[in-house]
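Hi both,

Apologies for the delay on this - the queue was longer than expected. I finally got the NAP-bound model through. Below you'll find the protein sequence and the ligand SMILES exactly as submitted, and right after that the structure tokens for the full complex including the ligand.
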Amino acid sequence: MRPDFIPGHISDADIRPLLIAGAHGTLGRAFGRICLTRGLAAVELGRADLDIADPASVAAALEEHRPWAVVNAAGYVRVDDAETDAERCFRENATGPEVLAQACAAHGLPLLTFSSDLVFDGEQEHPYTESSVPNPLNVYGRSKLAGERAVLAAHPAALVVRTSAFFSSWDEYNFVHFALQAGRAGYPFEAADDVRMAPTYVPDLVNTALDLLLDEAHGLWHLACQDSCTWAELARAAARRAGLAEDFVVPRPMADFGLPARRPRQSVLASEKGMVQPSIEDALGRML
Ligand SMILES: NC(=O)c1ccc[n+]([C@@H]2O[C@H](COP(=O)([O-])OP(=O)(O)OC[C@H]3O[C@@H](n4cnc5c(N)ncnc54)[C@H](OP(=O)(O)O)[C@@H]3O)[C@@H](O)[C@H]2O)c1
């Protein structure tokens, strides 16, 4: 008798996976990695296998993989390019999540999707919570807000996580990595010192978002480090942790960068739902 042939034994073929859309991006790869370490079966699909804005592609993926839940890690995140690429930005950030939400609602599947601190205008003096009123200043923020609203209208049981400014050691496309690269090479690194936000440590984000999904949480949730900083303060904190002198960080007003998209002067996320993430220093301590 085969050793796995035990009456009542659940074979791998019976385990319904978590379906990760946008699996080749920063967040998608982090979900794949953490599912592996947590022993959660996952199907990781990039754009070539699943286009979230194409209803036929979504229907085919759900039919083929029969997931127990869907994580949407796909999106258009180039905030400045979005100012002149609104159609594509809205396709990936609003239409795509809506198509996924409609399909998940029709199949009775939980959906986890992500939004941004840039749905806020920065005029509020204190941190933004889930019930704060959004008022985006740029195309990207408007597309994320449209996505949130479309998802929750189509699938009220969906989980929509607002988060901000990713950092981790798992890829090189983040501010902390660029700052440390400059510091280690002995180059000056200019960073805004008049814009305040709560950056997000990607491993903590993914673990907490998965916990919320497994707990069947729904609606809007804010997940970011529990404290806040300016971009220049983040670069200096990372430099200290990495054992570098901080003076390569050159503080500048955000306006000096001449970026096409307007940014809120503060977009600090806090939660009124009691969800507290570790601090920036704690995250940097584990990262560096
Ligand atoms: N990065 C941050 O600091 C940050 C902050 C707040 C919120 N978020 C949110 O977090 C999510 C993930 O961001 P990220 O930084 O991981 O982005 P990312 O690294 O750019 O990855 C996004 C992935 O989505 C894919 N994609 C785009 N449109 C798609 C579609 N229609 N169907 C399937 N895949 C598609 C992209 O593929 P292609 O390369 O082929 O386009 C890319 O692989 C987004 O919702 C973003 O708004 C990010």
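Main takeaway for now: Residues 86-107 form the longest helix (22 residues).

I'll put the files on the shared drive as well.

H.
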